[in-house]
Amino acid sequence: MGHRSYVAVELAEGADPDPVVDALAGDDTRLSGADRYDDVLTFSGMEGPVSTLDRLLTTVDDALERAVLVINHDGGRGEMIGRYYENGADGFGAVEELRTDFRWEPGAYFDYFAAKYGIHAAV
Amino acid sequence: MPPSDDGPSLETLAARVAETPPADRRGPALELAKRRLETVLPSQSTALTDDTIDRLLPHLDDPDPAVRSAVLLVLRNAMYLQLQGTETALSEYPPEALADRLLERIDDEHWAVRQAVLVPRYLHPILAATFEDDADVDVDTDALSASASWLADRLFQRLVDPVPVIRKRTSALFFELEDASTVVLAHPDPDRAVTTLVETLTDPADTVFNRGDACEPRNAAIETLVELVAHRPGLILPHLETMLTHLTGDNGYLRFQIVKLSIGLLEQGEIGCEAIADDVIDALEHGCYPLRTAETMQLLVSVALTRPDVIDDVASTLRSELAANDSRRSYAQHAAAADALGRLVRESEQSFGSVEETVAERTGDQSLFDAGIDPLVPLAEDHPAFVADALTNGYEALREEDMYDGRFDKELLVSVADRNPAAAEPVLADLVDGANVHNVRRLLANVSEAHPTLVAEIVPDLLETVETTPPIPRTVCQVLATTAEIGVRIPDELVAAVTESVGPIGNTPAYNGNRRYWAVRALVTLSERNHDAVPERIEPFVEAYRDGQLDDVVDPLELPAAREAGWEPVADASER
């Protein structure tokens, strides 16, 4: 079945979206996108696991203000992980994580991060 | 581990939400939502009690949108558990009452709240019961205050929500319905609903790969419009012209669906061919007419029959299609193209080339598509050069290593050769220089079993192309075994190399037993034809073969006679 991942990134002010799209949805990744709304770019695809997505975000963290990723890990009954990132005083990093130990509705995590941080969803 | 072991219960958290003054309520509400999200399964936590639900419900109208969203996340889950009839649910709360309260927030002023209402997993049962009377869904629509008309109106508003993900989720809800045109028909103003759908065809929202969670609005819109044709074609007619402009757009799926919709209108007698002819021809000239199915190809023919100026174009399009490699499709498009071309030739008064005339004859009594016949087979008799060209192009893909099966498989080449060897000969002659590729060799080996004489002609070229140091590939040994009977002269050095290939060699990959079998078979055949270079020590294999002890699942080295004749057994299990 493969991992199923969804990413929403909010560009930093004045940041160029092209390098971000290249890094997240270029030939080397299994994500496609980006669909853009306001300053948020959204991606989805079969990329994973969560450490890979984390690394992909880090490669373009200068251009990012905030980000949410939600992944349904493959294998057994799966596992869903959601992370919210911010570019804060200590640089870009995960601020909060949600975890469910089976495959579940990715939109549910996006809804939580939308309620709490006001960031748009990828799905 | 149950969450109650490492944190406060949902009940406690919900009580905190209710007790906290509005200005500070956001924190506990989000904490409650997070707890609910991380413990969704009934086995992990208990469902909410009626009292708790009653306590939370007023906060769906909280002044803080974060509180409204957070409470919504919790209550929609409660509704879901009630609808599932979860045995551990503590609440007796009717899901319909919860649904009504959640749906009140479907046009909330804050996007995050609207978004939280529109999760397909939770909302689909309500829609299925409201619009489709779905008996599998345990929702009592009489107990719902939200009427079908009210809900349809709201869904159409969300289909054009400024926030793309809300439009995508709404689209997924449309998609999940058996027949989403029921939502149009329930709408207080169906004309307006259809206008919205037609406008949605240009919605750029994109990049969603899972239609269960969300999908592209334009896809949901066109599917709904196609479904509507069967019920109220009159609603579509005023928009047909606008829709047809998409026939030259760059979205192939949309083009295909619009042709499908036009076919529906034609079949119902709502329009005539002339209403769509110009746009169909435009698409054809732009090279983007969707051939895809028998129906779309037949429509092309119907249009051509009313417009003699395009008959040649349509005929040549269908002629290339019947010869083209559509192996990556699950659908035998080539056979449908032949049927369509045949009809065009039969029903038109124009004269055609001889290939087209033959297609017309061979499709007159039967549909090749229905009969599962590849058009290249009946064409082989009279048009060997045309068929050979098509096959040469088709088998070219074998050199890419990544595909084998599909239209251009062993059976097609064998069937063509059965009909007319002259149509297959040039194909083999062309393929042989690609014989360093396994898939090409495999095809040659398979064909050589049915047509050894044909393949024998290319053996000298084959031996020029392939590596002839041991181990000789199984497929080459197979060709040698089948063609040696014809009397192809095999050089002594090659016979020695084949002989060496019978023994265990180095750390070679799997199927060695089978490779050894075919090496032995080649040697047995050569020995029967008294080839000087076949050594005496293969004698035990010749006898075993005659006695029927050898077939392609037997590793020759496992035979007792081989052991007695001094052949080394295979020592390492990995060699087997």
Automatic annotation (TrEMBL), chain A:
Q: Under which name does UniProt file this protein?
A: Uncharacterized protein
Task: State the superkingdom.
Answer: Archaea
TrEMBL record, chain B:
- Identify the stretch(es) annotated as Disordered: 1-28
Q: Which InterPro entries match?
A: ARM-like, ARM-type_fold
Q: What is the official name of this protein in its record?
A: HEAT repeat domain-containing protein
